Amino acid sequence: MWFIPGGGKMCYHAKWYGSWGVKGSTTCFEHRQAGNVVYQRKSPDGDWYVFKRLKYGDYVTTKQTRIKAKQ
């Protein structure tokens, strides 16, 4: 689940599944703009880099369905 707490932050909360069980975690990214360039970093102390724009669409479901079918 993605959420925007404000101040240029965008976060997601995820549940990760593996042979070790299930683990929940929250990860946040900060964003700043200089001119027409948007920078992003993993919060709280990641390195700043040029943010590549998000693309519209679902790029996961089809691949996930194929992986599940092979199991």
Describe what this molecule looks like in 3D.
- This protein has 71 residues and is mainly beta.
- It has one domain.
- Helices cover 14% and strands 52% of the residues.
- Strands 1-2-3-4-5 form a 5-stranded antiparallel β-sheet, with no helix packed on it.
- A hairpin with a 2-residue loop joins strand 3 and strand 4.
- The longest helix has 10 residues.
Describe this protein with a few key phrases:
5-stranded antiparallel sheet, 71 residues, mainly beta
Q: Tell me the number of strands.
A: 5
Rg from Cα: 16 Å
In spatial order, strands of the major sheet run: 1-2-3-4-5
Ranges where pLDDT stays below 50 over 5 or more residues in a row are none
